[in-house]
Amino acid sequence: MCPKGCLCSHSGGLNVSCSNANLKEIPRDLPPETVLLYLDSNQITSIPNEIFKDLHQLRVLNLSKNGIEFIDEHAFKGVAETLQTLDLSDNRIQSVHKNAFNNLKARARIANNPWHCDCTLQQVLRSMASNHETANNVICKTSVLDEHAGRPFLNAANDADLCNLPKKTTDYAMLVTMFGWFTMVISYVVYYVRQNQEDARRHLEYLKSLPSRQKKPDEADDISTVV
């Protein structure tokens, strides 16, 4: 049966069109023989795990122009090998699990999403078949590097390996911390030496200020007698 609100037709396989059907989630009663599935222009916000696992003949999947924010790790399990076209453009996707597109052979359209460019996105795009073309259409809404915001992801990835940034940042912070401790130790040693020098100077001045010992008359007479 055709899902409620959708239109089904046969043209080179079963074509299921659920465009503009006011759907808030992906139908779970999709016919297993579906080849082309159009779910664009709805109000879908997420793609759950294994939602398409029974659609072994699915070649085209259009989920553009929704409000998709979340894509579960195994969302495309069962169709990753057969899918030829995947359209996720014009949604609200900022990030996905690094394994979300594993084994995906489809040409993916993921432009016009508020992507956050970081190591995970770099790993995701590298795992996709149409890596270069897909990455070139991704614009960084935000990024781990502020200077990459508003730029194509491909340019950002060419400028810096986003997966090495945390380590570099940690190393830099460690160096700054060590330098701070070293500076503090040196300052303490210098202060300690100067303080000791000042104390020694004061003690010497104190000794100099003491009155000289006067000889007693009887000590003088003893000395004269001995001579």
TrEMBL record:
<dbReference type="InterPro" id="IPR000372">
    <property type="entry name" value="LRRNT"/>
</dbReference>
<dbReference type="Pfam" id="PF00560">
    <property type="entry name" value="LRR_1"/>
</dbReference>
<dbReference type="InterPro" id="IPR032675">
    <property type="entry name" value="LRR_dom_sf"/>
</dbReference>
<keyword id="KW-0677">Repeat</keyword>
<dbReference type="GO" id="GO:0005886">
    <property type="term" value="C:plasma membrane"/>
</dbReference>
<dbReference type="Pfam" id="PF01462">
    <property type="entry name" value="LRRNT"/>
</dbReference>
<feature type="transmembrane region" description="Helical">
    <location>
        <begin position="172"/>
        <end position="193"/>
    </location>
</feature>
<dbReference type="InterPro" id="IPR001611">
    <property type="entry name" value="Leu-rich_rpt"/>
</dbReference>
<feature type="domain" description="LRRNT">
    <location>
        <begin position="1"/>
        <end position="36"/>
    </location>
</feature>
<keyword id="KW-0433">Leucine-rich repeat</keyword>
<protein>
    <recommendedName>
        <fullName>Leucine-rich repeat-containing protein 3</fullName>
    </recommendedName>
</protein>
<keyword id="KW-0732">Signal</keyword>
<comment type="similarity">
    <text>Belongs to the LRRC3 family.</text>
</comment>
<dbReference type="Pfam" id="PF13855">
    <property type="entry name" value="LRR_8"/>
</dbReference>
<keyword id="KW-0812">Transmembrane</keyword>
<dbReference type="InterPro" id="IPR003591">
    <property type="entry name" value="Leu-rich_rpt_typical-subtyp"/>
</dbReference>
<keyword id="KW-1133">Transmembrane helix</keyword>
<dbReference type="InterPro" id="IPR050541">
    <property type="entry name" value="LRR_TM_domain-containing"/>
</dbReference>
<keyword id="KW-0472">Membrane</keyword>
